Amino acid sequence: METCCGSALFLLIASACLPAQSVAKPRAPNPRVQVKCVDLSNKPIVGAEVHIWQYRPLPNGSGEMVAAGPFVTDATGTTTTAIALTHSGGRFDRWVYARVPGKLVGAARALALGIATDATDEKAIDVQLQPSRSLRGSITAPENSELNKVRVRVISLSGIVDDNLWAQSFPRQSSITSLRNTYPERFECEVNADGTFELTDIPKRALVYLAAEGPGLAQAQWFNALLPDRTIPDSLSLTMQAECIYAGTVLSPNGTPCSNAKIALRIQRVPNAGVRETFTATCNAQGAFQLAGLPAGELILEVTSEAGLLRPTALELKPRQHLSKQTLRLERGVTVSGIVTEQGSDKPVDGAGLAAVSGDERNLPLGFAKTNALGRFTMLLPSGPARLYFSLVPKGFTHPSTPNQTVFEVDRDNVDMTGFAFELSRKQ
C-alpha cells in the first residue's frame, strides 16, 4: 500500500546523501556545531539531551551518517560540539534528536548545499521540543512464536508542529543505511513474553511508522498517517504472520559465483505497509544469499554488483512462501550514451542529469548519468524496454515536458547504443 506520506518521506530523505564538491576558495576552519533547545513557548530548555548525526562523504563516492553526542544544554538551552562536524567544505546534512527523558522531545534537520566561506555562515540549529508520550501496543503472532525475541523499531518519526507534518522528522529507513539502526535504545524496544511493548518519548503529535520483526516471522508495519487526525491510540495492535523466504545464488555473466553481490527486496505493494522498506543481503563466497522475514505481497528485486547488471523485477510472494535455489544470472549490460545541447545552438550543456527507468507503470530505476563539460553522458543499462528523461536540469534551463522523454529497447546484442541527442531550452 503506497501513501502520499510515504512518497513525501522518500523525497525528504533522498537528498541526505550529498555528492562531493570541491571547494571554490579557501575558507576558515570548520566551526563547531551549536544546538539550541526551546519549548513550545520558545523558552530555553536546560539539561536537554542532544544527539547529532552528520553526513560524511566516503572515498568510494558514497556516504554515511556519523553520530555525535549525547550533549547536554546549558542554562541558555544551548550546547556546542567539542569538535567541528563539517566534513565537506560547508556542504553538510545534519539530523538532530533532543529530549528531556519522559517529558519533552524534538528533532530537526540542518542542510546546506552551498559552500560556506567562513565559520559565521553556519548558524545554531534550533530544536523546538514538545511534550512526549509513551506508545504502547501488543503483538499477535502464530502459535509457538517466540514473542520475547520480537523487536519493535521506529522506521520513521516526525513530530507535527502546527500544521507542518514534517516539522521534526527523523528517518530510520533502509535508504539511509547508517541511520537505519542508529540509537536503538531510544528507537527500538523488546516485546514482552505476553506480546506487549512500549516505546517512550514519542511526540504527542506525530507521524509514526513502526515495524515489528522477529525470528520466523514476517515484518509487520503500523503507521498512523491515514488515521483520523493522525491519532496515536492508547494501545495499538500488530499482527505478525509466518515469514516468506527468498534464497538462491547470483552468477556473473560468465556463470561463475558472484561473491559480495548485494541483493535487495523492496516493498512495493504489501498490505498495511506504509513505507517501502527494503530487505537486504550480501552473497557469500559461493554467491549464495538468503532473505528472511519477508511479508507476503509484491516486492521489487534488485541486485548490485561490479560483475554485471540485473534488471529490477517485481516478485509476488504468497503467504508463508519459501522460494529457494533461485538463480540470478547477471548480464554485462549495454552502454547507452549521447549528448545534450542548448536548443537553437550546438553549445553543450554541462551538469544535466538523465535517468533511465523501466518504462512500465512501475518506472523502476535502471540507471543515471550526468553530462560532462562536452555535454556528453554515458550509462550502463540492462536489456529490455527503457525510458530516458531529464531528472535534473542545470540552472538557467527549463525542464522538458513529458513528450520529450525517449522510450527505446536496450538490445543486449549491442556492445553499446550511441547517438542519443537531446536539447534543453534556456529560461526566458
Task: Describe the secondary structure blueprint for this structure.
Elements: H1 4-14, E1 32-38, E2 49-57, E3 63-72, E4 78-84, E5 92-100, E6 104-112, E7 125-128, E8 130-140, E9 151-161, E10 164-171, H2 177-180, H3 184-187, E11 188-190, E12 196-203, E13 206-213, E14 220-223, E15 236-239, E16 244-251, E17 262-269, E18 278-282, E19 288-294, E20 297-304, E21 313-317, E22 322-329, E23 334-342, E24 353-357, E25 365-370, E26 376-381, E27 384-392, E28 406-410, E29 416-424
Parallel strand pairs: 1-7, 8-15, 16-22, 23-29
Antiparallel strand pairs: 1-4, 2-3, 2-5, 5-6, 6-8, 8-12, 9-10, 9-11, 9-13, 13-14, 16-19, 17-18, 17-20, 20-21, 23-26, 24-25, 24-27, 27-28
Helix content bin: under 10%
Assign the structural class, choosing from mainly alpha, mainly beta, alpha/beta, alpha+beta, or little secondary structure. mainly beta
Please state the average pLDDT score. 86
Q: Report strand %.
A: over 45%
Instruction: Please give the number of β-strands.
Output: 29
Distance between the termini: 41 Å
Tally the helices: 3
The outline comes out as globular
Main sheet attributes: strand count, strand direction, barrel closure: 7 strands, mixed
- Give Rg in angstroms: 24 Å
Extract low-pLDDT stretches: 1-28, 116-120
Summarize the structure.
With 428 residues, the chain is mainly beta. Helix content is 4%, strand content 49%.
